[in-house]
Amino acid sequence: MRDPAGKPAVDLSLKLGGIAAQGITGSAHLGARGPLDAMVLDAGVGPASWGGKPLSLATEALLDVPDQKVTLRRLNATARGENLKLQGPAVLTYGATMGVDHLRATLGAVTGGENAVLDIKGHIKPTLTLNADLRNLTPALAEPFSPGLRAQGVVSASAALRAHWLSRMVRLT
């Protein structure tokens, strides 16, 4: 840690190699760099495999402790032939106000095809005002985790959740 009495800043890293557990093998890393109002956090897995198939994770976020927010700048993951990808920055707030400002991610097969899309935005605290949309989710995405699944169709769903935590009545729509 640099300048702990003035403007504290960290420069931490952790690297793990030779991981072997529950069918997962490979390496991972974690890092935190910078001052408390602009700390870059990163985590990753890879090169790695899960059940003999490629496994990877690459994340990066910007933490602002005084303003109680995290900007998720990158999230890419691959597991068992599926890809999860953040489509743009998402701001997560914590503290007196808790919420998410436009988290949009896609999930799809490495081999291509149409991706499922998840959009989430709103607040959880002090009042619940959360909107979520899921589009284009197909049973094919579950196949790597449930071999032999014989389902067909496409799922799309929207949710608008509203509640006041101090109220005795909670109404969800």
Write up what this structure looks like.
The protein is an all-beta fold. Helix content is 0%, strand content 65%. The chain is built from no helices and 11 strands. A hairpin with a 2-residue loop joins strand 3 (39-50) and strand 4 (53-64). The radius of gyration is 19 Å and the shape is flat. The relative contact order is 0.10.
Q: What number is the mean pLDDT?
A: 91
Q: Please report the total strand number as a whole number.
A: 11
Unreliable runs: none
Beta-strand residue fraction: over 45%
Order of helices and strands: EEEEEEEEEEE
Morphology call: flat
Number of helices: 0
Largest sheet: 11 strands, antiparallel
Structural class estimated from helices and strands: mainly beta
Q: What's the layout of helices and strands?
A:
Elements lengths: L8 E13 L2 E12 L3 E12 L2 E12 L4 E11 L2 E5 L3 E4 L4 E12 L6 E10 L1 E11 L17 E10 L9
Antiparallel strand pairs: 1-2, 2-3, 3-4, 4-5, 5-6, 5-7, 6-8, 7-8, 8-9, 9-10, 10-11
What would a concise description of this structure say?
This protein has 173 residues and is mainly beta. 0% of the residues lie in helices and 65% in strands.
Jot down its keywords.
flat; mainly beta; 173 residues; eleven-stranded antiparallel β-sheet
